[in-house]
Amino acid sequence: MASTADIRNGLCIEYNNDIFTIVEFQHVKPGKGAAFVRTKMKSVTTGRVLDNTFPSGHKIDVVRVERRKFQFLYPDEAGYNFMDNETFEQTTIPESMISRPELLKEGTEVEILFHAEREIPLNVELPASVTLQVTYTEPGVKGDTATNTLKPATVETGAEVKVPLFVNEGDLIRIDTSTGAYMERVKQ
């Protein structure tokens, strides 16, 4: 057990039968009344953000989590299969724990958060961006470039992304994994 004096950015705590990480906090001592700690917490399992206020000295349950590097192997009916880069053990993660599974390409390195005491996976964090090849897109219409016009494109994993008109089939593009949006065309 810890208290609110131990709260810092990145700390993982158990709150309302879920595991949250502290995104930001502020210790407030008003002129009148008791001190308190205002926090912004993000759920490790669902990703939702919660604003919460703890009274000063309140006891909190600190959870130890470990980040381990895994390599994506393949999807099957049981879920998504990953291999630990150090021990070469394989683990299967359900699709609900991955924020954008359609952007996973064979061989992609991800970080999986594990509950250290229980050894259960909590969340899969994709890299900030992934580079994928465009497998299908309609050709852009010449003279239609006056505005930021986007067209749909299918990438090698089967995901559909909106891209600018100058992107063609066979081009490599970088995609932001947090939003699933096109970032830039990659030189080959």
Structural features, described:
It contains no helices and 16 strands. It has three domains: 61 residues, SH3 type barrels (Roll); 61 residues, OB fold (Dihydrolipoamide Acetyltransferase, E2P), CATH 2.40.50; 58 residues, OB fold (Dihydrolipoamide Acetyltransferase, E2P), CATH 2.40.50. The protein has a six-stranded antiparallel sheet, with no helix packed on it. Helices cover 0% and strands 54% of the residues. With 188 residues, it is mostly beta strands. The radius of gyration is 21 Å and the shape is flat. The mean pLDDT is 89.
Write the layout of secondary structure elements.
Blueprint: E1 2-3, E2 12-15, E3 18-28, E4 36-43, E5 49-55, E6 59-62, E7 65-76, E8 79-84, E9 90-93, E10 109-115, E11 120-125, E12 129-137, E13 150-155, E14 160-164, E15 172-176, E16 182-186
Antiparallel strand pairs: 1-6, 2-3, 2-6, 3-4, 4-5, 7-8, 7-10, 8-9, 10-11, 12-13, 12-15, 13-14, 15-16
